[in-house]
Amino acid sequence: MAGTEEDAVAAADDALYVLTAVLLTPAKFPSVLGDDYPEACAALGLAPLADGYGLVLGQDGEGARWTVAIDDVSLVAVAIASWDCGMEYDLSPDERTVVAALPGWPLAVAVAAPGVPAPHDPDPEAAGGPALRPPDTTTWGPAQRRLGADEIALQWALWREQIDDAEFAPAGAGSEAAGTTEVDESAEDGEGDNSPAGRGGVRRVLAEVRAYVETPPPLGRVRSSFAPGDARTLRADGPGWSLVARTDDIAFVLLDDEPGEVLPVGRGPELPGLLDALDKMAVRPS
Questions:
Q1: Does the pLDDT of residue 13 top 50, yes or no?
Q2: Are 182 and 81 contained in the same domain?
Q3: 115-136 burial string, b = 16+ CB within 10 Å, else e?
Q4: Which of 22, 24, 108, 243 is least buried, going by the fewest C-beta atoms within 10 A?
Q5: Across all residues in the chain, what is the average pLDDT?
Q6: Residue 14: its pLDDT value, please?
Q7: Is the dihedral of CA 66, 101, 73, 35 positive or negative?
Q8: Composition bias, kind Low complexity: at what positions (predicted)?
Q9: Do residue 11 and residue 55 come from a single domain?
Q10: Measured between alpha carbons, how far is 179 from 189 in angstroms, rounded to an integer?
C-alpha cells in the first residue's frame, strides 16, 4: 500500500493541497485506527517507527485524496498547535521527510481544497494499490467504541457530573462497577441498567489492566495525558474494551459486547493504586 517518495511527488503532480494533519506516534495516534500504536500503523501499512509519523491529508491537482506520511513529527505538531490556536500555518513538508504516499484518507475529512475537483480516490493503477478508507463507525464496534472513549476523555466534566457517587456499591475486589450510561453517536445520554454481562465485562477489563502492569502490552495501549491540577487522564485499550480514567477520580469502561453503554468504575480501595501503576508505565507526549 505504501508508495515511495517519488510516487508521492508524481501522484500529486508536485502539489498537495493540505487540508489537515494528525500525529501518529506511540503517545498520540488516531485511536479509531487501532487499540495500540503498532495496530494503528499496520492499518496504514507503515512500520511502527519509534518516533512516529506526521500524517498530512490533502488533495492533488486532480482532486484525488492522498495521505502523506512524513518523519518530521515536530513540523506536524507545530502546525496542529498553530491551527488549534486559530493561527495560520503553511504546512509544507520537505520532500526528504516523506516516508510514504498513501492513496485515500484513513480518517473522515469534512473539508475540500478550493479550485480542484471534489475529493475522490485516485485511480488504483496509478496509485499502486487500493485507497485508504475511514473505519466504519456507523454501527457499534471497535472503531466506535474507541471514538466513544475519546469523547469521554475530551468531555470528562460533562460525563462525570452524570454520576452520583452514592450509586456505587461498596468496592471490594472487582466490585467497583456501578450503573451505566447510554451513549450514541449524537452524545445524548440517559441512565441505563448495569446488566450482569456489563458487570462481568468490567471485572474482565480490570483483570486485563492489572495484567498490563505486570506484563507491558503493545506500545500505546496505555497512554497518559494532562488533566487539571496534579491529575492525569489515562487511556487504556484492549481486545474488545476501552478504559478512560482520571488518576484522582473514577474510571469509565466501554465494551464491544455492550453496545452504546458506558460503565462507571467506582474509586474503591483498589482503583487508586491501579491507576497510579498505569500512569507510571504509560506512554506520555514528549
A1: no
A2: no
A3: eeeebebbeeeebbeebbeebe
A4: 108
A5: 87
A6: 56
A7: positive
A8: 171-181
A9: yes
A10: 13
Mean pLDDT for the stretch of residues 205-223: 96
Residue 215 burial (CB < 10 Å; 0-12/13-18/19+)? exposed
Q: Are both 104 and 228 inside the same structural domain?
A: no
- Quote the pLDDT of residue 164: 84
50 domain-assigned: yes
Q: What are the pLDDT digits (tens) for 78-132? A: 999 999 999 999 999 989 999 999 999 999 999 999 999 999 999 988 888 899 9
Kindly report the CA angle at 108 between 104 and 111, in degrees rounded to 5? 95
Domain count, the chain: 2
**Domain that residue 23 falls in:** 5-127
Rounded Cα distance between 78 and 80, Å, is: 6
In a domain? residue 40: yes
98: three-class secondary structure by DSSP: strand
Q: Give which of 234, 240, 201 is closest to 220, Cα–Cα.
A: 234
